[in-house]
Here is the input.
Amino acid sequence: MFQITCHTRTSKETGKKMEKQQKSSHLVLVMLPFQGHMTPMLQLASILHSKGFSITIVHPELNSPNPSNHPEFTFVSIPDKLTESQLSDKNVTGLVWSLNKTCPVPLRQCLEKILHSHHHIAALIYDTQMYCAQTIADDLGLPGITLRTSAATTLLLYPVFSQLDEEDFMSEIKSPELQALHLQRLRGLLSQNPAKEMMEIRVELTNALKSSLAIIVNSMEFLELEALSKVKQYFPAPIITIGPLHKLAPAICSSLFTEEDKCISWLNKQAPKSVIYVSLGSMASIDRQELIEIAWGLSNSKQPFLWVVRPGMVRGSEWIESLPNGFEESVGERGCIVKWAPQTEVLAHAAVGGFWSHCGWNSTIESICEGVPMLCKPFFGDQHLNTSYICNVWKIGLELQNLERGNIERTIKRLMVDMEGNDIRKRAMDLKEKAAFCLVEEGSTSCSFNGLTKHISSASET
Ligand code: UDX
Here is the structure.
C-alpha cells in the first residue's frame, strides 16, 4: 500500500524528471455543485495546478462556476437533467442521489472524449458525494481519487457506523475522544432518515471509497487523530489530510453569491475582538420567528455584530423584511447586515471576536485557522458532528441550545464577555498555531501534498 512520508528530497535529475512528468500530467476533477463542496475542490485544483498539473474541471449545470475567474483551468459542463421541482425542493440528499443517476452517462462520454483526443488522464479526482465517478474510473482504467470536503470522521459515520449493530457500535467508541463526539446521537439522526435515496447513497459511497486509490480530506492530522486511526482500519486506500486548503489557495474566487465588501469598512470601525460574526452558511434556513429571535438576541447582547442573511434564507421571505419593528433603531451603527460576506477576510479581521456558525466544515476550518471561538447552532448532517468536536473535544466554542432571544443573549455574553470565554479563546489561539504549523515545510499538510503528487505521478505511470 502507498505510504506517505516526509522524505521527499530527490536528486536534481529525479526532480527534473518529476517536474517534466507533472507538466504533462492531466487531472480531471469532478465537482459536486454546492458552495461548501465547490470551494475546496477549486482550491485543490489551484494547488495541484501550481505543482505542474493541467486541470479539467467537470461540473453539472447546476451552480456552474464562472470560468473567467479561473482561466488556468478547462471547464466542461455536463447536463444534470435536474427538474424544477427537484431544485425547489432543496432536499440535498435527493439532489445528490439524482446527480449520481443522471451524470454517469455524460461524464463517461466526456472522459472518453478526453482520452480519444490523446490526452493523458493521470487521475480522476471526484467529490466523495459524486461517487458515480469511481465506477467510471474503474471501467476506463483510470486511477480514481476522492476528495472528502467534510471531517475525516464522517468517513466512519456514514459508511461504517450506520451499518454496525448496537453491540459492535458500542465496542467501536471506547476512546475518550470518540465518546466526546456523541456518535450515538449522530447515528440516531442518520438512522431516522431511512429514505431509499439515503440508503442507496450510503452503500454506493462506501463502495466508491473502498475502490478509490486515495482518500483526500480537507482536514489536519492533529484535529481528528483518534478518528483518523479508526478510519484507516476500514479503508484500504491511504487517507491524505491536506487541509486547510483555503490557506494554500487563498486567491481562489469561488463564491456563488456576491460578496459585500462594505462590511470590511464597518469592521474597521469596531474595537478589537468585539464583533460577533453570524453566518449560517450556504444552505441552512430558518423561519420568520427564528429571524425575530436572533434579531432581539443580538440586539440585547449589546455586542457589535456582523450578520449574514442570505436572500431566501428566511423561509417565506425575500430577505430581511420580517425584521421586527424597533430593531433597527435599537441597534443603530452597532449592527451590520449583509447578504454575503468575504468570510475568510472577516474571520481574519482584528475586530472579530466570535463566530456564530451553523458549523459547516469549511466554516469550522476557517474559524480554527484564525483562532476565532465559536457559537454553534448546527442544522443538519455533519454540522452536528462538527459541533461536538468544537464544544466537546477541542473546546473552542459553546453550543447554542435553542433560538430563543434570552438564550441567545446569554450565550453570546458567555462567549464574548464572561470569564468563561477566556479559556475558550486561549484554546482557539492554540489551535490556530497548530493549524499554521501543518503548513510549514515539514508540517503534516506539506508532507501530505508531496505524497499526493508523487502518488498521482506513480499511479499514472503504471
Ligand atoms: C455544506 C453543509 O452545510 C456542511 O455541513 C458541509 O460540511 C459542507 O457543505 P455550507 O452550508 O456551504 O456547507 O457551509 P460551509 O461548509 O461552512 O461552507 C460555506 C462556505 O461559504 C465557506 O467557505 C465560507 O467561507 C463561505 N461563505 C459563507 C462566504 O464566503 N460568505 C458568507 O457570507 C458565508
About this structure: Residues 1-23 have pLDDT under 50 and may be disordered. The radius of gyration is 22 Å. The CA atoms of residues 415 and 421 lie 5 Å apart. The pocket of uridine-5'-diphosphate-xylopyranose is lined by residues 34-37, 39, 149-150, 255, 279, 281-283, 308, 340-341, 343-344, 360-363, 366, 381-383 (CB under 6 Å).
